Amino acid sequence: MSEQLGLPGMPRRLFSCTPSRLNTWLDCRRRYRFTYLDRPSPPKGPPWAHNSMGASIHNALAGWWRLPAGRRTVESAGNLLAAGWLKEGFRDEGQSTLWRERARGMVERYVAAIDPDDEPVGVERTVATRTEAIALSGRVDRIDRRGDELVIVDYKTGRRPLTEDDARSSLALAMYAVAAGRVLRVPAYRVELHHLPTETVVSWRHTDESLARHLARAEDIALEAAEAEETYKTGGRAAAKPDFPPNPGPMCGWCDFRAACPEGQEAAPAHQPWDGLAG
């Protein structure tokens, strides 16, 4: 981080990041380089149907909360989902229509179980915080206020059921709690994953100590990424390659940049764009 250190006595330039950026560094450093550093970046593969479904559901729920309270009905939620349905990645029109109706059912069942008058503090709210090393920001699906505290709510639409450990170990949720608490000046300890396919909520209540551990971990990850980026910028692409090795494994079959990574191609067969949908 020599560039960031600057002259003696000068403050260190903060490393700007999001939880997604930090998690990409942990998952695969080559994908990190392709995503955030290479310009132009390698071409991505086709869009994924499960991502289209997830984005459609997120957009519908955000739009529902932005309606006047009197218009937040089950029917309006379903209509928002249908009107904003994203078709990219599905095998054909028939499959898209089938999953649109399934997603509509998920959204309608979800809003039927919540109070439309219980106004959130934030919907698709961007929050940010700084430490001596990083400037971190991210967008939260929903922030509730319950009593004297904030609650971080993250919608999930994947096919895998979630556990308490998913909420406890999530770096993103912990960073959202830290940032929301600082921005809104209200304590935020509870984080929740709302899994629409199974109609379940898994949660975890952090402490000051557990949030501090997550924040320290984020700083450690950011330091590694910043040092590798500095090598990339000062040494050029060829010199930087050893600092961005791939992490071959089964997940390579889902990588957007699989076509640009020989190791990823050897590690796992390519998935069809609709393979991420539940059976």
UniProtKB/TrEMBL annotation:
Keywords: ATP-binding, DNA damage, DNA repair, Helicase, Hydrolase, Nucleotide-binding. The keyword Kinase does not apply. One of its GO terms (biological process) is DNA repair. Residues 18-262 form the PD-(D/E)XK endonuclease-like domain. One of its GO terms (molecular function) is helicase activity. It comes from the Bacteria. The keyword DNA repair applies. InterPro entries: PDDEXK-like_dom_sf, PDDEXK_AddAB-type, Restrct_endonuc-II-like. This is PD-(D/E)XK nuclease family protein. It comes from Bailinhaonella thermotolerans.
